[in-house]
Write a structure and sequence with these properties.
The structure holds two protein chains of two kinds.
Chain A lengths: L5 H8 L2 E2 L1 H16 L24 E2 L6 E2 L6 H4 L5 H6 E10 L2 E10 L3 E9 L12 E2 L6 E4 L6 E7 L9 E10 L14 E6 L2 E7 L4 E8 L3 E7 L7 E3 L3 E5 L2 E10 L3 E7 L27 E5 L4 E3 L11 E2 L10 E7 L2 E3 L2 E2 L8 E6 L2 E4 L2
Antiparallel strand pairs in A: 2-14, 3-4, 4-5, 5-6, 6-10, 7-12, 8-11, 9-10, 11-14, 12-13, 15-17, 16-17, 17-18, 18-22, 19-20, 19-25, 21-22, 23-24, 25-26
Chain B lengths: L1 H24 L2 H17 L7 H21 L17 E2 L8 H6 L3 H12 L4 H8 L3 H18 L8
Classes of the chains: A mainly beta, B mainly alpha.
Chain lengths: ~375, ~160
């Protein structure tokens, strides 16, 4: 097929700068070389510079009506510890919208290809009292969030984070989104997509045992429309296609893909022997369904000799699945997706420093990452 | 002196950088910015190599890393690396309909990148692995899958995963 690429080379050869542009480029480079101080304006302005040097930000489109401010990251400290893992996966945002004196700021985000967490901070007016047990925007998933490239099977939830200081008129929230597309689809990454976020009125509620539902009370009417922004954060995912034999569900198969990111592990296992596996796998999953993706052992090994077992039960986000297991004409396929733990209102609160992970073992099969 | 070095770099590498930027980032305007950024780095951090082949590999590696950084930080995209008024123009003929370039550009990034390095730059698999910081096995897999997908797109036999 090598010769077939002659046409590719010929077409690509035609992509070139014009002679005039090359002359202008040469002159500009020469001027810069003779005056190195020209490089300074390229740096980030102080208001947007991150103390940790995190090279990630949000590209704001149409800034009219929005304010870009420096604000402490919501997710750092309240959900995730700082350090390398946060820096490997986080982006600074800092976009605020005011609604009748109630200001909501999108502070930061933490993400990989398949998961994205967004931190929000609400600052109420001085005379407001925020002493209810909990607050929400609309309902737990009643807010609008969309991505320009489309996220197949977008899962989304918002949770209020523990209020460290009830007297400070500030609340913190986290939005958890996850791409839970079909296991045979190649989903789009959140990274680099244009995100649109709109929050409805702020409410609180009390449980009504007669109606078995919440009685909501509006705290602040109106809405917070953040417009469109591009989500951007470092891509630290280690991607491998090991094609290693493995035994799972009592049959031989192949580990075809492994992703290890600061947020999650993704493992793809394929093999004809897995076809029709629901005929022999027991219904022993926690939800009473076939236990075909819950019990594979996945362990991360670190450079200091320690290890961490990534359990399905600790994960808060979906996305795991199998090819069905009842029709032998289907692919024999298992997809395992696990986040690292889920402790704050069901939100994963552990990030992994992927630079320290030396290997991952799947069902006892050791896969070196370096 | 400055102009001579700048002219050497532009003459030797500007088009290569545009093609790498176009292949990695898809967008021609982003490719022009990558071209400027890398040329600035080459000018400000010169290195000497035993031969032009090693120098070219070094330039490619810098360009690939800059493309990765570019994708990580979209905010930088709005920043012109050189003079604000410097608008570069590229000869960019429309890809031939159903031509191979259009088909390669339609592939997932990981496939079109290794195809560029293998079939445009002529690197061997182990050299591509070193350039991209990936294992040779993974590069080989991506090459094969990329070619399989191309065969389907060009009307060949169905790709069997």
């Amino acid at each position: 097929m090598h010769d077939d690429f002659n046409a590719y080379r010929a077409e690509l050869d035609r992509l070139r700068l014009t002679d005039e542009s090359k002359q202008a480029l040469t002159a500009s480079l020469a001027r810069r070389q003779s005056n190195p101080a020209r490089s300074s304006p390229r740096r980030l302005p102080g208001t947007l510079r991150l103390a940790g040097g995190i090279a990630a930000a949000i590209c704001l489109l149409g800034t009219v009506g929005y304010a870009a401010i420096t604000s402490a990251p919501t997710l750092l400290g309240s959900v995730f510890d700082g350090g390398a893992a946060y820096e490997q996966s986080s982006g600074f945002i800092g976009r605020s919208v005011d609604n009748n004196g109630w200001t909501v700021t999108i502070t930061d985000c933490v993400g990989d290809d398949k998961n994205l967490y967004i931190g929000l901070e609400l600052a109420a007016p001085e005379d407001a009292v925020l002493d209810a047990d909990w607050y929400c925007f609309g309902t737990q998933s009643g807010f609008q969030i969309t991505f320009s490239g489309g996220i197949p099977g977008l899962g989304r939830e918002m949770h209020q984070l523990p209020d460290e200081d009830p007297a400070d008129n500030r609340l913190a929230f986290i939005i958890c989104t996850s791409s839970v597309h079909g296991i045979n689809e190649e989903g789009s990454s959140f990274n680099g997509q244009k995100m649109r976020l709109k929050l409805p009125e702020l409410r609180t509620g009390t449980w009504n045992s007669e109606t078995m539902d919440y009685d909501y009370t509006t705290v602040c009417p109106g809405k917070w429309d953040f417009g469109t922004m591009t989500v951007s954060y470092p891509d630290s995912t280690i991607h491998l296609e090991p094609d290693l034999p493995v035994t799972t569900l009592g049959v031989d198969a192949v580990i075809t893909e492994v992703d290890v990111s600061p947020l999650s592990v993704y493992v793809r296992i394929e093999g004809d022997a897995l076809k029709g596996h629901h005929s022999w796998v027991p219904k022993n999953a926690p939800d009473g369904w076939y236990g075909c993706i819950e019990y594979q052992e996945i362990v991360l090994h670190f450079d200091d000799g320690t290890s961490f077992a990534v359990d399905q039960n600790d994960s808060n986000l979906g996305g795991s699945g199998c090819s069905g297991g009842t029709d032998v004409s289907e692919d024999g396929l298992l997809v395992l997706r696990r986040t690292y733990s889920a402790n704050i209102n069901g939100v994963s609160n552990r990030l992994i420093d992927v630079d320290r992970v030396t290997s991952v073992s799947v069902c006892g099969v050791d896969i070196p990452l370096r | 002196m400055e102009e001579a070095q700048a002219e050497y770099l532009v003459t030797r590498y500007a088009d290569l950088l545009i093609r790498i930027g176009r292949t990695w980032l898809e967008d021609l305007d982003d490719a022009k910015d990558i071209c400027q950024i890398v040329l600035i780095k080459l000018l400000e951090h010169p290195r000497t190599f035993p031969d032009k082949g090693q120098e070219r590999a070094w330039v490619i590696r810098i360009a690939v890393n800059e493309c990765k950084n570019w994708k990580k930080s979209a905010w930088f995209r709005r920043r012109a690396p050189l003079d604000e008024g410097l608008a570069l123009t590229a000869e960019n003929p429309e890809p031939e309909e159903n031509g191979l370039l259009a088909q390669v550009m339609a592939l997932p990034a990981k496939y079109r990148q290794v195809i560029f390095l293998r079939y445009y730059e002529g690197y061997e698999v182990r050299e591509i692995a070193a350039l991209l910081g990936r294992s040779p096995a993974l590069v080989s897999t991506h090459l094969q899958r990329g070619k399989d997908k191309l065969r389907i797109m060009l009307g060949g036999t169905e790709y069997a995963r």
